[in-house]
Amino acid sequence: MKTLLYKVCLFVIFVICYVDVQAQSDSLKINSLKKVLLTEKEDTNKVNTLNQMSGMLAHDKNSAIAYANQALVLSQKLNYSIGEGNAFYTLGDIETGNNYINKKRDINKALEYFNKAIKIFKASGNQLKVADTYSEIADAYRGLNSNFSEAANYFFAALKIYEKLGAKDKLANRYIGLGSDYIRFGDFNKGLSKLKFSLSTYEQMNDSPDIASVCIIIGQSYLQNKKLNDALYYFDKAFSIYTTLGKNSPEYGIPWAKGNIADVYISQAENAFLASDNHQLALKKIQLALPLCMQRLELESAGNMSHSQTYLQIGNCYYDLSYMLPKTSKESNLLESKKYYELSLKLGKETNGKELTRDSYNKLSIVFHAMGNYKEAYENYTNYISNRDSILSADVTKKIAQLQMQYDFDKKDAAAKAAQEKKDADAKHIKNQQYLVITALGVIVLAAIIIVLTQFRNNKLKQQANIALQNQKNKVESTLAELKSTQAQLIQSEKMASLGELTAGIAHEIQNPLNFVNNFSEVNKEMLEELKAERLKPNAERDEDLQTDLINDVIANEEKINHHGKRADAIVKGMLQHSRQTSGMKEATDINALCDEYLRLSYHGLRAKDKSFNADFKTDFDESIGKINIVPQDIGRVLLNLFNNAFYATNSEQKTADESYKPLVTIQTKKLTDKIEITVSDNGNGIPQNIIDKIFQPFFTTKPTGEGTGLGLSLVYDIITKEHNGTIKVESTEGEGTTFVINLSIS
Fold first, then answer.
1. By C-alpha distance, which of 224, 223, 226 is closest to 234?
2. Neighbours of 685 (CB within 10 A)
3. Alpha-carbon distance 200 to 192, whole Å?
4. Residue 23 predicted with pLDDT over 60
5. How far apart are CA 598 and CA 604, in angstroms?
6. Where are the alpha helices (DSSP H) in 40-126?
7. In angstroms, rounded to a whole number, what is the distance separating the alpha carbons of residues 501 and 575?
8. Residue 405 lies inside a defined structural domain of this protein
9. Does residue 342 fall inside a structural domain?
């Protein structure tokens, strides 16, 4: 014990020297800013200086708040929105404690300030600051009340913006928290991959303080998984970086690294004592750990930093000494351990630290048990269980996994959208070239006619004119053949365009059953693991009812997986059926189901191309129709064209209408005597009466250049009238809407 006390004294001397140097450095910076404030005019520069001053005085909450409020008032007076947003951001950061204030922190106040900051940053279009504020809210939920589910929402919201902006340093920072949460909830490999991504990014940036911070987090991950040598390697690396930085090292760096190295020594001591019964090695490790913990406590106290883990560490050291040293000192070491655990519990309650409160109750239950006070031990253990269950919820793990899946899907969806936009641009280029060819051919035809007329009028050269006329006739016929070939290519291009729109809708539709399949399979895996664990118990301890319930739940989930798998299969088969060339053979088809399917695919296809698009749709199907003989692929193309045009019309109207306008597309089927009637209506901008008779003509379109080929309704007309011997008519009132009415024979 004398040797141990001697080491503690040496560390205290070191602490006093280190704190003095650090305090002098911070004091010089603060005094420099104060001098600047005295000379600055009341402009935006002064707002920025006040915000900076507030951030540096985080150890002095009252002063920090005072400077932030000055920045807020001045920025509002100057109408300086960014300064006002930064002031609210700083006030929110102060309320979170920022690891410096050993007092109760107010998450509600912090969220109020952060939300005001977000509103300002969004209005000014500063997406980076919006993402930074999301990050701070995530840290507040995570650190102040261990609400990991809500924290995950803001984590991924920030990640999406950082990803879009290409902010690698910000992404690396967010991956630290995300990786820590994965490890906290049992997925060590995924968590470690996130942390090592952050480490690699900071190493590329040569950012020494952040490299050290990530090393600490990685070391803690290895420590949590009992990989002590790996943990010690990263802790030593962090300590070396902080030491090299000297006065440029963050104030929390040295004590943080020392404390984590002490955690490794404590674990090594306990392993040596329990596993190999090597009391001498165990005692040596504790004698290394305790001075480190004391140094950490002194450094944190000097910098007004939180002792959220330090009290627990010191309590652990004294508890371990209670059974490593002779029995004569057991009681005194247990009392010391109890004292620090109680300080830790008090701090956890004061700061709303759920995890710290949980761990403190657990340690106190162990100490009271060792002291023979079983009543207090039981009460503390009960409190430990209650706090543990409120933090480690299975719902949190699922929530984070779902958000990760959605985040990954959104990234893939954005990449697919970019690829589709490139394809659309290429297709537009091809269409423009085709239009040029058609124009050139038209010019040639016109020239041929002029030549024919000229030759016809030339009576003197009648014989030569007749020969020339025949030659020109042959050329015109060849030109017309080329025109028909080009028209056929354009018709095929229109069909492929409709297939692309259909594919976008199907991608959206198929995602829902796939999500169900993935989620239920994960739940089945967890229940089977639980069933496996139950079956490993002795027969007398098995819960038969639990096993039966688990088996029944697995069967029920498998039925759901089968159901949604068949749904996905049906969607894929529908897509294949649409994409293959039509055989021209009619078959019995449920026209109501066909209408419903293509209505939804059209809507989701347009939504996939334009996230801002939104409209309502209604169906009114006559169930007495049954099945009719049609070519389903071709009628599907007809319906897809009509639905796309209807949604396009409502979207165009919505851009110019007032807020009372509600876009609506309606599909109705009705059985008549010997035929069925299909009506597609919209409340869009309508078709002018002077062009309504032209809409079924090839290449005629009312859409802007590049947005339509003019072949959609021409194809619709040919499929209905020529292929199915039906009729199609259109009724429209400009500014009110359009209705297409199709009649098809039942036989």
1. 223
2. 23
3. 12
4. no
5. 10
6. 44-56, 61-78, 81-96, 107-124
7. 11
8. no
9. no
Number of Cβ atoms within 10 Å of the Cβ of 305: 24
What is the model's pLDDT at position 694?
A: 86
Q: Please tell me which residue, 26 or 306, carries the higher pLDDT value.
A: 306
Domain that holds residue 718: 596-745
Report the phi/psi class of residue 90: left, alpha or beta, with left for phi > 0 and alpha for psi in -120 to 50: alpha
pLDDT in tens, 345-400: 998 888 777 888 899 999 998 999 988 898 998 888 888 888 876 665 544 544 44
**Tokens 């004119």 identify what position?**
465
Rounded to 10 deg, the angle between the 632-656 and 462-535 helix axes is 90
Separation of alpha carbons 377 and 371, rounded Å: 9
Q: Compute CA distances 140 → 95, 107, 108, 353, 427, whole Å.
A: 9, 7, 10, 11, 49
**Interval 424-445: pLDDT, tens:** 666 666 767 766 767 777 677 6
Residue 642 is which amino acid?
Answer: L
| Tokens (6 digits) for 41 | 């005019």
For the chain, count helices (H), then strands (E).
23, 7
Structure tokens at 434: 């085709």
CA atoms within 13 A on the CB side of 497: 24
- Reported as a single tens digit per residue, the pLDDT across 483-527 is 666 665 655 555 555 555 556 556 656 766 787 788 878 878 888
Cβ atoms within 10 Å of 293's Cβ, excluding its own: 30
Residue 543: Cβ-neighbour burial (10 angstroms; 0-12, 13-18, 19+): exposed
**d(C-alpha 456, C-alpha 466), whole Å:** 7
Please say whether the beta carbons of 608 and 722 come within 8 A. Answer: no
Note whether 471 and 560 are same-domain residues. Answer: yes
Tokens of residue 594, six digits: 């066909």
The letter for the amino acid at 494 is: E
Q: Are 293 and 314 a contacting pair, CB within 8 Å?
A: yes
List pLDDT tens digits, range 545-558: 888 888 888 888 88
Residue 19 has pLDDT above 50, yes or no: no
Domain count, the chain: 3
Tell me, yes or no, whether 570 and 630 share the same domain.
no
Contact 82, 91 (CB under 8 A): no
CB atoms within 10 A of CB 116: 19
* Dist. CA 345–CA 383, nearest whole Å: 11
**Residues 6+ away with beta carbon under 8 Å from 656:** 685
Token pair recorded at residue 588: 């019995």
Q: Which of 183, 242, 180, 184 is nearest to 211 (CA)?
A: 242
CATH number, domain at 700?
3.30.565.10
Buried b (16+ CB within 10 A) or exposed e, 711-745: bbbbbbbbbbeebbebebebebeeeebbbbbbbbe
**133: number of Cβ within 10 Å:** 29
Determine how many CB atoms are found less than 10 A away from the CB of residue 649: 23
Single out the residue in 579, 611, 638 at which a domain terminates. 579
Cα–Cα distance measured from residue 349 to residue 344, given in angstroms and rounded to the nearest whole number: 9
Residues in a beta bridge with 589: 628
Residue 425: CB atoms within 10 A of its CB come to 11
Give the whole-angstrom CA distance, residue 190 versus residue 677.
Answer: 57
Residues 562 and 654 in one domain: no
What are 731's strand-pairing partners? 739
Contact 77, 101 (CB under 8 A): no
- Taking the alpha carbons of 74, 77, 79, 81 in that order, is the dihedral positive or negative? positive
Q: Check: pTM over 0.85? Answer yes or no.
A: no
Q: What is the pLDDT of residue 293?
A: 92
